[in-house]
Design brief:
25 strands; 578 residues; nine-stranded mixed sheet; alpha+beta; 13 helices
């Protein structure tokens, strides 16, 4: 035995290193486009640049092939194992470099794929070894029966384990309805009870039971009047064609506070969290450290502006909006949701609509809150490049989607429902009134801004750029190249490159993983965050907005293009009530 170990330790080491390196490069595929971008794909989409990550992955597997050959011919030739070892080391160093210089924010997405493939490969190797070198068990049948009984016990225990709420409810506002979303730890039937009336999670007349996420639509006026609701669920242990087994009934009760603008409105806007859930929740909850702009005790609603997660690869990712929203609201106030471009990426992206507020599986719609309190229009510019961008591999058709939203805005203006509401806002992850230096979907942004200007909006909320920009009408000449405020940029005459469209309502760019308007841990930190708090007084005809960080401090900052500094940011409402 000692001689065999001595003889084969190096081929086995080469085999292990090359296999792990090859599997990691396969798991790294979600960053292949990032590698190409780093190599210059945006300006030089050559065959080598575009395909180098795949070629490196293939090289890693070629190294594994040499390792297999080394196991077979080691007694005669050593060069295959040595070659495999060298390739494995090179591939490992290359993978580490990719992580350090660009993919460390995505390691949480890479590792699950890697460990899953390692487990599968380990199982295949173990099975092959058993076939080639079968163990000499004396009581094989007995052990097989014991293993079968143990496996059956595990399966039965898994099926009968208690069913609990894995994600507590969030009340999303869509048009004149609420969509109450909650999730269970197992497949279950679910419903909500409001004032003695039950509303079910149905599919064509039958209670849905093959899912863990439950989305139940209720009329706004019903929940507003009741100011309370309960979520109810029963585990679906087995559903057969002519019978089945349900678990015990479980219920959880929640209070609810409808929007009421009679004492002012208070809302919080959050964008570009990118998994920094605790920090974002802390910034939203930091009420004591801010100067009170008016006598508003409680938050009326929150606006989630997208990119809460870097990609929607797992159920945990797709649930992050609900995790964050419940931490802030406790299921007790409405939430308005706008999709970010990073929530278009990943295996769960096409299922996102089930987990958040949406209309007909899309993310462009209006919202009304209260009898005449709030009107909101939610827009979705989709991805942040044109449809023919190489990273979308010919799947993007967002121009059609954007055109539908242009028609939606025209319909909103024609119908005029917005005119009945005291406070009006726009929410869109990618800024509408700003055109970047590349000019992406410039025509849509101009058309949308012209239509939004006619709605007499009080505020526009966006994110995407990871900056804290208050954009106030009249502060900068429209349609001219933007030049940064010297104090904001730190250098005189620095050109931003984009331009602002001629808009007539204040716009705030929201969401930064930092403690300040500039600098800080942006890009890597998950324990710092800044969001926007706004208090509006429709009776007084004004509102005050503050950027607040996760330490509870209101920021002192600079207007990015116009002159001046801010702490409180006052803006007038369009329809002051006398």
């Amino acid at each position: 035995m000692g001689e065999r170990i001595k003889k084969y330790w190096f081929p086995v080491l080469s085999f292990t290193i090359t296999l792990l390196a090859a599997l990691f490069w396969v798991a790294l595929r979600i960053n292949h486009s990032g590698i190409s971008k780093f190599l210059g794909a945006d300006t030089n989409p050559s065959f080598l640049v575009m395909n180098l990550p795949v070629m490196v992955t293939a090289a890693a597997w070629i190294g594994f092939g040499f390792a297999l050959a080394g196991l077979k011919v080691w007694s005669r030739k050593k060069w295959p194992a040595v070659t495999a070892f060298v390739i494995g080391i090179v591939m490992t160093v290359a993978a580490v470099a990719v992580i350090i210089f660009g993919a460390k924010d995505y390691i949480r997405f890479i590792l699950p794929h890697f460990w899953e493939s390692v487990a599968v490969s380990g199982g295949i190797i173990a099975f092959g070894l058993i076939l080639l070198f079968p163990p000499k068990w004396k009581n094989g049948l007995k052990y097989a029966l014991i293993a079968a009984v143990a496996a059956a016990a595990v399966v039965i225990g898994y099926e009968l384990r208690p069913c609990t709420l894995s994600y507590e409810p969030v009340v999303y506002a869509v048009e004149d309805e609420y969509q109450i979303v909650f999730s269970t730890s197992d497949n279950a039937v679910g419903w909500v009870n409001i004032g003695g009336k039950e509303y079910y999670d149905l599919y064509a007349g039958s209670m849905k039971s093959a899912d863990k996420v439950h989305k139940i639509t209720v009329p706004q006026e019903v929940l507003d009047e009741a100011e309370a609701y309960s979520v109810n669920y029963r585990q679906m242990i087995y559903r057969g064609p002519f019978g089945g087994y349900l678990g015990e009934l479980r219920s959880q009760h929640y209070k609810f506070r409808p929007v009421d603008s009679s004492d002012g409105l208070y809302h919080i806007a959050i964008s570009d969290v990118h998994e920094a859930v605790e920090a974002a929740a802390a910034a939203a909850a930091a009420t004591d450290a801010r100067p009170l702009a008016m006598d508003t005790e409680n938050v009326d609603f929150i606006v989630l502006l997208g990119d809460l997660v870097s990609m929607v690869e797992t159920e945990k990712d797709v649930q992050l909006a609900n995790e964050l929203a419940f931490k802030i609201t406790g299921g007790e106030i409405p939430v308005i949701y706008a999709r970010g471009n990073h929530e278009i990426k990943g295996e769960y992206a096409e299922q996102l609509y089930k987990y958040v507020g949406s209309k007909d599986q899309q993310y462009a719609y209006t919202v009304t809150l209260g009898d005449d309190d709030v009107f909101a229009v939610v827009l979705d510019l989709g991805e942040d490049h044109e449809d023919d961008w190489w990273e979308y591999y010919e799947t993007a058709k967002f121009d059609l989607y954007r055109q539908e939203q242009t028609e939606m805005l025209e319909d909103i203006l024609e119908e005029g429902e917005y005119e009945n509401y005291r406070y009006r806002l726009m929410a869109c992850h990618i800024p509408v009134v700003y055109v970047d230096k590349h000019g992406y979907f410039e025509s849509f942004r101009n058309d949308w801004t012209a239509l939004l200007n006619q709605m007499e909006l009080d505020i526009g909320l966006s994110g995407h750029k990871h900056v804290l920009w208050p954009l106030i009408p009249g502060q900068v000449e429209p349609n001219t190249t933007l030049v940064y405020n010297d104090a904001y940029s730190g250098s005189e005459g620095k050109v931003e490159g984009g331009y602002l469209i001629d808009f007539n309502f204040p716009n705030f760019l929201v969401g930064r993983r930092s403690l300040e308007q500039a600098g800080g841990t942006q890009g890597n930190g998950y324990d710092q965050y800044v969001c926007l708090h706004t208090r509006a007084d429709p009776s007084g005809g004004f509102q005050i907005s503050n950027y607040v960080n996760s330490e509870g401090r209101t920021l002192n900052g600079y207007y990015p293009f116009g002159n001046g500094i801010f702490n409180d940011i006052p803006t007038d409402l369009k329809r002051p009530e006398k």
